[in-house]
Amino acid sequence: MDPEQLYSIGQMAKVCKLSIQTLRYYDNIDLLKPAVIKDNGYRYYNQEQILVFNVIKGLKELKLSLNQIKEIIRTGDIAIVLTIFKEQQQELTRQIRLLESARKNVNNLIENIQLHDRLGEEHYIELKVILPQTVAFTRYHSPSNQVSYIKRFNQLHNIVEENKWTITGSMMAIFHDHYTEFDYNNADIEVCIPISKTERHYPNIKELPEGKFLTKFHKGPYATLVESYKIMLDWCRENKYRMIGPAREIYLIDFLSTKEPENFITELQLPVKQV
Fold this sequence. Notes:
Blueprint: E1 7-8, H1 9-16, H2 20-28, E2 36-37, E3 43-45, H3 47-60, H4 66-75, H5 78-118, E4 125-130, E5 133-142, H6 146-163, E6 172-175, E7 187-194, E8 205-208, E9 211-219, H7 225-238, E10 241-243, E11 247-253, E12 265-274
Antiparallel strand pairs: 1-3, 2-3, 4-9, 5-7, 5-8, 6-7, 6-11, 9-12, 10-12, 11-12
């Protein structure tokens, strides 16, 4: 072989714009072997290795793993290549779906924070129809305090992650005890995380039904939520409405977004019916 056609590992690194460490790693995993290893241990590459590197580079741009790339280069079998590409197509589709979900969640957080800046001290109440919503959930009796909520939402979030469900909204809690009988030490609480619809049935997934709700944004710590509930219940009495189901709290800005409870924003939702 003509020596002028050989490249030392340093020259190869410059031609390919790689580090020498990367070339050594590719050699160790049998992805890109030198054309020649001389008695002194020096590695040399030729034009064929440069071509192989360009193939590796192109396949890496498809987000294929090094193991997948090595299999493609090793076999050259078009059927195997097609199988790998189809698997990658599915994986990229999954990643795009996750990224789209993350983008929507970031947009929601931005909107929630902007809502915080718009909210004043006025007690704005709205009657609205809330559409059906798919949620992951757990329901059981537990203390009603921040430590308990953090623990329960963390457990539910782990279930969502394990099943690779796509989150679509803010965390929420549904309180099944009547407000006149609420026991802070042992409350019937359902914690929920909105997710995309799934075709399969899971014990931790349900659809919250459509309904008419009286809603109010509460700005401030959870300890003062009772003030907003009182305002909403007073509105019901004055306007001849009554509660017909459990209250919901949607945590738009919470301890995940800020360490300052006075900046928390919680949307309160009471299912109501005109008397």
